[in-house]
């Protein structure tokens, strides 16, 4: 995984942002005119149909039929006019005017999407960074030590036998290994000989879906990278290019949801337009939230992480007040020495082993808008926000995936 600094260079806005806004306004006027034209046409055609029916049933039936068939005394009536529902000829009730906050929200979302479509994944990379890639023949224990020593939680995998990109190693893989040996205690003494190329066998044994081996060329639009992350439920995506001389894959870096959202927060001023509160846009999870207490055994929390495919569990007391959050990365700290004795600890004891520079947890209110949340992301390394009330009682959980999905898909058609 690329280990880099949080400093991002502000990028000038593209002139195409304003161009898209004018195009949207023009097309909106055209659409409105078409609606009026269609209504008038429908009304005229319906009247013609009435006249034709009256003429064909009058006292001079033969003469009327002759005039209709000749087509000289009346204009041509399109067949579609007979198929239209007559109700459409009446003027539609005027729609309610949009609120200013709704208009600004849409303007902010449009600006973010336009920005992501004209920037590539290369643009998000810092000027200097480290990239650690693991060979699939590496022992799980050795890979764990390397992650801890370098302060990272994931790394791309490389299959040297085929010289190909083999996926991404994350904390979920280590948690799956722990779960596997918990269910098969007789094989615990073989854990030190377990290699990274056997991780897929662990997933099959546990019955969990293997993570998709997704990647994207760094020259593709950043918008496309975001859509791939959402479709695969991945929290990060490797950047893999193709070497034209050797025709082989080349791992460039890894981009996370946090880095993408911070990139947006730094460079798109229109994030301040997103002022609609979370409760109105219904963003986040507010029902069936997995929780634990300080006395809950760590292994019980790990089971919940695997069972629900989640990355964190809020820690609350009997009154629902949030004390802390147990994260999937906390498991790495407990097994970093290659021993698994600390997995028998309670959550409260395990959290004491966190690094002193742990940033803490971030909270927000259900009345907060994404404008203030983007401010927090711009200033701090945030991976999720716990939604609480005025008394710090748990209400919900807002993840970066929730935010990314909203800014990309809200108001968009179902298909991509």
TrEMBL record:
One Pfam family per UniProt: CBS
Biological processes, Gene Ontology terms? autophagy; filamentous growth; peroxisome organization; positive regulation of gluconeogenesis; regulation of invasive growth in response to glucose limitation; regulation of transcription by RNA polymerase II
Q: Where is the composition biased (Basic and acidic residues)?
A: 15-26, 40-53
Q: Which residue intervals are annotated with compositional bias (Low complexity) in the record?
A: 54-69
Keywords in alphabetical order: CBS domain, Kinase, Repeat, Transferase
The chain positions of domain CBS read 209-270, 283-343, 354-414
Region Disordered, annotated ranges: 1-71
Q: Which domain of life is it from?
A: Eukaryota
| Family the UniProt entry places it in | Belongs to the 5'-AMP-activated protein kinase gamma subunit family.
Would you tell me the protein name for this molecule? Snf1 protein kinase complex subunit Snf4, putative
């Amino acid at each position: 995984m690329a280990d880099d600094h949080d400093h991002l260079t502000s990028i000038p806005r593209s002139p195409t942002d304003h161009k898209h806004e004018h195009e949207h306004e023009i097309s909106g006027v055209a659409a409105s005119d078409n609606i009026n034209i269609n209504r008038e046409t429908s009304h005229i055609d319906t009247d013609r149909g009435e006249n034709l029916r009256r003429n064909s049933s009058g006292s001079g039936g033969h003469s009327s039929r002759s005039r209709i068939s000749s087509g000289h005394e009346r204009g041509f009536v399109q067949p579609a006019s007979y198929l239209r529902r007559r109700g459409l000829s009446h003027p539609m009730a005027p729609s309610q005017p949009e609120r200013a906050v709704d208009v600004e929200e849409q303007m902010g979302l449009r600006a973010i999407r336009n920005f992501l479509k004209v920037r590539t994944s290369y643009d998000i990379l810092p000027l200097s960074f480290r990239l650690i890639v693991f060979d699939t023949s590496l022992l799980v224990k050795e890979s764990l030590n390397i992650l801890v020593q370098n302060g990272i939680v994931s790394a791309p995998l490389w299959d040297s036998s085929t010289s190909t990109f083999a996926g991404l190693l994350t904390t979920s893989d280590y948690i799956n290994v722990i779960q596997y040996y918990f269910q098969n205690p007789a094989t615990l003494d073989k854990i030190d000989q377990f290699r990274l190329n056997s991780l897929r066998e662990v997933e099959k044994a546990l019955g969990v879906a293997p993570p998709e081996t997704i990647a994207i060329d760094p020259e593709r639009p950043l918008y496309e990278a975001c859509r791939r992350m959402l479709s695969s439920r991945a929290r990060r995506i490797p950047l893999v290019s193709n070497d034209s001389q050797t025709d082989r894959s080349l791992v460039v870096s890894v981009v996370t949801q946090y880095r993408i959202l911070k990139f947006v927060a730094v460079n798109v001023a229109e994030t301040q337009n997103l002022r609609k509160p979370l409760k109105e846009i219904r963003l986040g999870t507010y029902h069936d939230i997995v929780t634990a207490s300080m006395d809950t055994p760590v292994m019980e929390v790990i089971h919940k992480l695997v069972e629900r495919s989640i990355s964190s569990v809020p820690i609350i007391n009997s009154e629902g007040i949030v004390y802390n959050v147990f994260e999937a990365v906390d498991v790495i700290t407990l097994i970093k020495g290659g021993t698994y004795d600390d997995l028998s600890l309670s959550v409260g004891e395990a959290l004491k082993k966190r690094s002193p520079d742990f940033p803490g947890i971030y909270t927000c209110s259900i009345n907060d808008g994404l404008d203030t949340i983007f401010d927090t992301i711009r200033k701090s390394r945030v991976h999720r926000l716990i939604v609480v009330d005025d008394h710090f009682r748990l209400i919900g959980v807002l993840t970066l995936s929730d935010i990314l999905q909203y800014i990309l898909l809200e108001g968009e058609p179902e298909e991509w």
